[in-house]
Amino acid sequence: MKLEVIATKVGLASFTIIMVVGNGLFIPIMPSIQDELYLTAGQTSFLLSVFSYAGALMIPVSGLVSILYW
User: Fold this and answer.
1) CA 20, CA 52: separation in Å to the nearest integer?
2) Nearest to 67 by CA among 3, 12, 2, 11
3) Which of 33, 51, 62, 67 is deepest in the core (most CB within 10 A)?
4) Does the keyword Membrane apply (predicted)?
């Protein structure tokens, strides 16, 4: 198997894992982000919501793509 194909497969699998684990890693650093960017509680909640919705949309897509090309 070519190195490019292997790299593509690893990248697709890694993307899904990063999106799933990323939300769990994102929540504990929210107070730091809020302080450094001078965000209100509402803006911080919106940021977390956008991150979660992006993951909810992309996890099934990346899973399907990884199944098709695995």
Assistant:
1) 9
2) 12
3) 62
4) yes
